[in-house]
Amino acid sequence: MNVTEAEARKLWCPQARVAFMGQHVGNRVSSAMIRLGVKQADQGDTRDLNYLREQQADCHCLASGCMFWKFTGYRQVPSSVRGQDEAHGTCGIAADYPLTGLWKFDPHSGEPL
Questions:
Q1: What's this model's pTM, rounded to 2 decimal places?
Q2: What is the pLDDT of residues 15-27, one digit of tens each?
């Protein structure tokens, strides 16, 4: 899946790990944990919900901040000034999908492939 860095940062990363105080370690925050946090927040205690939301954010993709991030090309932004196209990439761990609709460039030389 080819996405911009902003889009990638909203996606879950299977390599992320979170720790829950005194409980367990996992790679995501379950919806059951969120529901429990919401229930406690409804009773006036938002500490657990705030902690769970922070942990949930820590499970998102780091995009180009990750060693697995793979630059895949540029996509033209509608009505953009020439040269201001959006860079796209994909997770290097994920399956390799075809680059549909992207202009492919060598990331080092900038030359078209």
A1: 0.60
A2: 887 776 666 667 6
